[in-house]
Amino acid sequence: MTQAVRHDSMRARNLELVLGEVSRRGPLTRAALAELTGLTKSTVSKLVGDLLDAGLLAETGPARAGERGRPGVEVVLSGGRVASLGLEVNVDYLAVCLLDLARTVRFTKRRERDNRGSRPAIVVRELEKLATEALGEASALGLTVAGAVLAVSGPVGDGVVFSAPNLGWRDVRAAEMLRLPVPVDLDNEANLGALGQLWFGTGGDDFLYVSGEVGIGAGLVVGGSLFRGAHGLAGELGHVVVSPSGPPCRCGAAGCLETYAGQEALLAAADVRSVPDLLVALESGANTAIEACTAAGEALGHALASAVNLLDLDHIVLGGIFAALFPWLAPAAEPVLAARLGRLRGSVPTLTASTLRGDAATLGAAGRTIHRILGDPGPFLSRADG
Amino acid sequence: MTQAVRHDSMRARNLELVLGEVSRRGPLTRAALAELTGLTKSTVSKLVGDLLDAGLLAETGPARAGERGRPGVEVVLSGGRVASLGLEVNVDYLAVCLLDLARTVRFTKRRERDNRGSRPAIVVRELEKLATEALGEASALGLTVAGAVLAVSGPVGDGVVFSAPNLGWRDVRAAEMLRLPVPVDLDNEANLGALGQLWFGTGGDDFLYVSGEVGIGAGLVVGGSLFRGAHGLAGELGHVVVSPSGPPCRCGAAGCLETYAGQEALLAAADVRSVPDLLVALESGANTAIEACTAAGEALGHALASAVNLLDLDHIVLGGIFAALFPWLAPAAEPVLAARLGRLRGSVPTLTASTLRGDAATLGAAGRTIHRILGDPGPFLSRADG
C-alpha cells in the first residue's frame, strides 16, 4: 500500500515535471526532456506516451501511424483535447472565454447587460446561456472542458460572494447556482485579472494589477504568485481612503477611491452616459471630460501611493476601463505618486496600461483551470483512463 | 564529493529537525525525539550529543559526569552558551537587548537620547557603547554572542538605511559603521517589532503590528512569516494618506498618517512636551490631551481601514507609544474601522495593545539571530568544533 502510494506520488511529480518543462519552454524532444528533468529516457517515453494518450501533449511535425516517438520528433502542449471556461459577471456585462490547454483562446462572447440590483438567480441564468454556448462550441471543436472559474467583482471566499455592493449582492453562492455539466469555482474579478495579466500580459512577476470598472479592485502578484491575504479579500483598492470627508460610498464609508474614480463617478463628472461616449469626448478634447479624468487620476495617485507604502510595489498595471483611459489618467496620477513617494523610496513605481483591456479577468479565470491541470495532471489522466 | 555534500545536507536537515522539535515543544527525551522526527534512536543520540557539545541543547535534571543520555533524561534548548544582541536606534532613544538561545532576556539597556539630525557616526558610536556593555555582560555570563541585528526606523535594505526622515538620515550604511566583534545585520524597526510580537507577544500567526513612535511603521505577519514586499519596504503605514489636503509631512508629501498620529504631532496637539507628560494629562482627564488622542485615533482608523482593504487583516496590534496610549486611541479608531469596513467585510478587525510596549523591536532583532541558529545550526556547530 505504502509502495503503491509512493509510486503514484512519484509518477504525479514526474508527470508535472515533464508537462511543466514543455509548458515553459515550448517544443522539446524526449531526449531533451530526459536531460532537463534528470529522468531516464525510458521513464520520459512512458510519461510522454501517457500524456499523449490523455490529449495533454501532441507531437509536432507530420504524424504517421505506428511511428510515435521517432528521434527528433518534438512534443508540445496539445490544444486539441482539453479546455477550460472563464466566466465573468460584471456590473455592465457578462462574459465567457474558452481556452485550450495550449493557452489559445478558442471562443469568447461578451454581452452588455445592466446587472445593477438584478436578482442573482436571473443573472446566473443569463450567464448559463453564454456558458452553454461556449460548451457547445467546445464540443464542436472536439474539446473536453475540464472546469470553469467564475469571476465576480467584490470580496469572495469559499464559493460565496460576500458582498458586491455595485451588483447589490450579499452572501450569494454564485458558483453553486450555475447549473453546468462541469465543476465551477468562484474567485474575485481583480484577483483573476491579475492572474490574466501574469499569464497573458506583460507585467513580469511582481506587480499590482488594478481593475477599473464600476468597482475598483486590485490583485497583488509577488514572485509570480497572487497575495490573497487572510481570507482572500486582499486588494480592495476601491475602498482605500482618498479623503475621509469625501462623497458617500455604496460600501457605507465616505471618500473611498471608487467615489472619485469608479466608472459611475467618472461618467457623472464628465457628464456623459457611457465609456465609449467618454472616450469620444476625451479624444475631441472636451474640457469637462478631461477634468473628470484628471481628478480621477489624482485620486488614483493618492490611493496607489498608500498601496505602494504598504505593499512595496515597483510596477502598477492599469486594467479594465483604466487601460483605455490611461492617456488621460496616468498624467494626473504620476505626479501624485512622485510627490508622495519620491523622497521616501528614492524611486517611483511605473504605471502601465494592460494590453488585455477588459479581458484580463476571463482569461485569468480560464487560465486557473489550465494551470491546475498543468500543475497536477495525474487526476486528469486517471479520468481520461476511466 | 557528492556523497559528502549529501551527507552534510542530510545532517544539517536532521540537526534542524531535532532542534526545531525541542524549540517548539520544550523538554523531550531522546526516545520522544526519535518518534517525533522519524529518525533512529542512534541517529538522534549522535545529533543530540553534538548539540549538547555545541552548547545549543542542555540536559534537564541533575547531571552526573559520564552519565549523559540516561533513559528519562530530557533535553531542552540551552540558555547557557549561545546568545544574540538586538540593537535599536530610534528618534528618542538607543536600546540594546541580550537574548540567550532559550529566549530568555539576560540584559537590556535603554538610553533616552534625541537623535534628530544627529550625524550617523556619532549615533553609532553611542550605540557601540551600549552594545559593548551588553557584550561584556554576555562574557561575564559565559555566553558567546553569535550575532547582532540593528533596528532602525525607516526603509532599510541590503545593509543601507535608505531614508529615515525623522532622524535626517539618507543612504546610511549603519550596520557596517558599527565596530563590534560580532556580525551585524540591519532591519526595519517595525518589521523587527512584528517579529518580536510574533515570537514574544500574543498576536497569533496573522496580524499587522503597528509601531507608533516619532515615525509610524508596520510589519505584516501572514502565516507566521513577515511579508516584506519587493524590496523589504512594505508596511510604511505612517505615510498612508489620511487626507491629501492635510498637513505637510517630513517625507515631502501631505496628510500622511504621521502628521496626525506621529509622536510629535500628538504632543503638539496635546500641548505637552513628552509621552510621560501626555499620559499624566490623559489620566487626569485633560481635555486637550484627550481630544488630541481622539483625533489621532480617528486618523489611525482611516489609515488602518486602507491597510485592511489592501491586506485583508483580522487582527491589528498597536505597539510602541500606541500601546501605552491604547485606552485613548482605540475608542476613536474602532468606530472608524467599523464604519469603513463593516458592510463590505462582514466583520471588523480587532485592535489590541502589544504587551511588549517599546521592547518589541529589540526583542525581534535579537530573536532573528536565535531563529537563524535554530533553523540552521550546522555552521554554528562547525564553528564550535573549530
UniProtKB/TrEMBL annotation, chains A, B:
Nuclease is among the record's keywords: no
Gene Ontology terms for molecular function: DNA-binding transcription factor activity; kinase activity
Entry keywords, A to Z: Kinase, Transferase
Pfam families: MarR_2, ROK
Record SUPFAM superfamilies: Actin-like ATPase domain (SSF53067), Winged helix' DNA-binding domain (SSF46785)
PANTHER family: BIFUNCTIONAL UDP-N-ACETYLGLUCOSAMINE 2-EPIMERASE_N-ACETYLMANNOSAMINE KINASE, ROK (REPRESSOR, ORF, KINASE) FAMILY
Recorded family membership: Belongs to the ROK (NagC/XylR) family.
Annotated protein name in UniProt: Sugar kinase of the NBD/HSP70 family, may contain an N-terminal HTH domain
Taxonomic placement: Bacteria, Bacillati, Actinomycetota, Actinomycetes, Pseudonocardiales
